[in-house]
Amino acid sequence: MASRWKTASPVLLAGGLATIGVLHFVAPKPFARIVPKVLPNPEALVAISGAAELACAALVAVPRTRRFGALASAALFVGVYPANVQMAVDASKTSNTRYKAIAYGRLPFQAPLIAWALRVAKNA
């Protein structure tokens, strides 16, 4: 099972990054809404982060560039964390319990994503 996970893990990471990266271009509005308010031009930042996710996905998918891509993915997960914080801050001002659950639920989810990317880098 462990060796199967080592094989599937980079494929799943690359697929997840690619999916989210594409969503940044197909449906950018939800992502633009959670860009921290102190940052300029949310639409451009969504496009940049979407492109970064697609680039990371491509790097992770190729065994020769997997280590670098996984490390870049971990850095990307750290870099986009402020958007999750902004989403939680915005959610705290609403009575929509579903939105609050999603917003607060995203906060601890970054840590396993970072750990996953680092594990893929280590196993590359």
Q: In oligomeric terms, what are we looking at?
A: single chain
The total number of structural domains is: 1
Largest sheet descriptor: none
Q: Rough shape?
A: globular
Helix content: over 70%
Rounded mean pLDDT score: 93
> What is the strand content?
under 5%
Radius of gyration: 15 Å
Transmembrane segments: 44-62, 69-89
Organism: Cryptosporangium japonicum
Keywords: Membrane, Transmembrane, Transmembrane helix
Protein name: Membrane protein
Write the layout of secondary structure elements.
Blueprint: H1 2-26, H2 29-33, H3 42-61, H4 66-79, H5 81-91, H6 97-123
Transmembrane segments: 44-62, 69-89
Protein name: Membrane protein
Organism: Cryptosporangium japonicum
Your description of this structure?
This protein is mainly alpha-helical and 124 residues long. It has one domain. Helix content is 82%, strand content 0%. The protein is built from six helices and no strands. The protein has helices spanning 2-26, 29-33, 42-61, 66-79, 81-91, 97-123. Helix 1 runs antiparallel to helix 3 (42-61) and helix 5 runs antiparallel to helix 6 (97-123). It is globular. The mean pLDDT is 93. Keywords: Membrane, Transmembrane, Transmembrane helix. It comes from Cryptosporangium japonicum. The chain crosses the membrane at residues 44-62, 69-89. This is Membrane protein.
